[in-house]
Amino acid sequence: MNGIRKILFATGNEGKMREIRSILADTGAEVRSLKEAGISVQIAEDGTTFEENALIKARAVAAALEEKDCVVMADDSGLVIDALGGEPGIYSARYMGENTSYDKKNANLIARMEGISEEKRTARFTCAIAAVLPDGREFTTQASIEGRIGYRPEGEGGFGYDPIFYVPEFGKTTAQMTAEEKNRVSHRGKALERMKEVLGENEGFDCQ
Q: Which of the residues are catalytic?
């Protein structure tokens, strides 16, 4: 394979797609979401790890394609809070119900962290990326960003749990970071960069 020209990313999350397009911009590939590709597929995310769920999604979408002319990528990511036994973890998107707003989810988590000292508010965002190539090969990468749970939501950028995830190195939440800062250090940014390297080594990407 002499360079990947089309990528179908298995998500309908617009905030996530903005990040993904920015990170994959140097590949020169066309990056589409499921909605843009007109694909609707029911996926049972019943894996026990981020990596398993990412592979489940990528395989399901790849199997639904009539034309095998693109790389299918999927991610599974979430917030892991040590003081809460790893919650919400792989259930981050479905925490308190899939249709519950993140404002409510974030408020609930902050309330549950009440009284927990600064040094015990450790948490991390973890992301696994899975890629299924047209020839059937599969690759996965995973990365995390360490931080702490804040005492209140801060920042208007990002999405999801970003307003309550404080990164001491930057002195702000991921919702307060610029897009460039976040893409450079985020769990998704690092996992996608690793995937670009993996696919490059396996004749996947021909980055510009």
A: 76
